[in-house]
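dumping these here so i dont lose them again. two proteins, back to back, each one seq then structure tokens. dont judge the mess
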Amino acid sequence: MSELTGKTALITGSTTGIGRATAYALAARGASVVVTGRDTQRGAEVVKRIQNDGGTARFIAADLTNQEDVTRLAREAGQVDVLVNNAGAASFGPSASITTEQYDSMLDGNLRAVYMLTAALAPKMAERGSGSVINVSSGSATLGDFNNAVYAATKGAVNSLTRAWAAEYGPAGVRVNTVAPGPVYTSAPVEYLDKYIPLIPLRRVAQPEDVSEVIAFLASAGGSYVNGAVIPVDGGLTVVEPPKPSLSID
């Protein structure tokens, strides 16, 4: 496939999980991929695999909770045609237990970095008359989620930014969309994720590729008329009422 030949794609958090799968998917479609994250070794491994498969990639180390790193990343990435704001972190627990440091880290990495990168790169896409920004949100932004207030709030804000940016940049040919995954086999313990299976209509937890293929669709010509959408990629978890316990009446 060569749908994205001649395009450069910057994918944050692309040394593991959904971001890594997205890097492979976009490279397979011809994009020149900018891999970024904090782990240089894992970044080099992603770049090497893409190159071994005949693709083009390079790595830029960056900590997205650091404003200077975000600014540098936008500068060093150069011309970007596809921006995937994937990186994110979560600290779980009762709201009263979340420290100021944890709060700041989630707001900085999950929200401020998304805002800064898009504000830096989307206007340049608009000048060229085309581009695609794809944010990675979460089903937690839609459902009330136990012990997850701050993370869910950052993802809800990303959904709102998506709609605002679709209106702002759409007239110049830049599409802004969001994918909202449910449980995905990434860094969370398998035993924890598997507890969701009875609640998911498709009765399985997603693989990273289930999400990356939707991102690739939004980045390519097939998604050319999709703008401002928040697309659940969760097997139906957030749109179907969960099963109710059976009641026996004597």
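---- next one ----
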Amino acid sequence: MPFNFRDSLNLARKLTLRRAWNAVKVLSSYYLSKYSGKAIQWGVPISISVEPTTSCNLRCPECPSGLRAFTRPTGMLQSNFFRNTIDQLYKELFYLVFYFQGEPYLNPAFLEMVKYASDKGIYTATSTNAHYLTEANARKTVESGLDRLIISIDGTTQEVYQQYRVGGKLDKVLEGARNIVQAKKTLGSSKPFVVFQFLVVKPNEHQLEEAGQLAKQIGVDALWLKTAQVYDYANDPNQLIPANEKYSRYKKDKDGNYAFKNQLLNHCWRAWHATVITWDGLVVPCCFDKDAQHRLGDLKKASFHEIWQDPTYQKFRSGLLKSRANIDICANCSEGTRVWG
């Protein structure tokens, strides 16, 4: 992600000696595993994503939540379960993302949980479609101590925006963004760091400059351009892959067919330093396992530390070191952001 001094300084302030030592252990075990070919895991995650809900108000074409395509149940993360999980991890945990699938603000207890984590000194972030950022919610968001708020804005006109954000209203997004900017001013807070995230797809790639102008006009802190994951990229049925390969995860081969840009290397930093917890307590390896097919543990049945060192998790890490291409969620894995201007 692009560097910002103020946001980075805020992040650095969350570091404690205990968290720093844990990070050293995790990093050391990752490199030792990478070069030895044997899965070794020291420490506990530096970063965790928790899922406030699988529910969503939009129907985005490449999102299982939007398409209502999950085989797993839809539900809401419960506060007591969340607090119990954080109590197990907060002394080492550095970074907490309140997002996996769904729209976080649909969970009535969402900002209460953000505050609980913030009060533990953890850097907190979330991603939203901003349709629920009313004046009241914007104020509560600032008061919760949230450190970073990513607002998805994938078009600068309603006509373009709705082609990906199906069912969404751009004026609601912009109203929500203005509310959070105003709430920060009213409360005299530098947080959250507010980002407009622009998912670059074919229908909107001509609006990148306009997106930058809109970000400045609204007064958000940054604009991030993100490449889109397309599940069936060989056929691209929704016509989402942009013409400009700079903003695409895919490129055309000599036969004119789309292929993955990057080579899949047999290691993955995420499997050592981060993990994802679904709303109902399942532990899955990363955000690419959207339907929780690779279930590495269940926090309703075991503690996080037991799951993190369990043979099931170690077997998954070993599989990454042998052949990422043979793991379905890894085969279409690539992420990238670019800063506007």
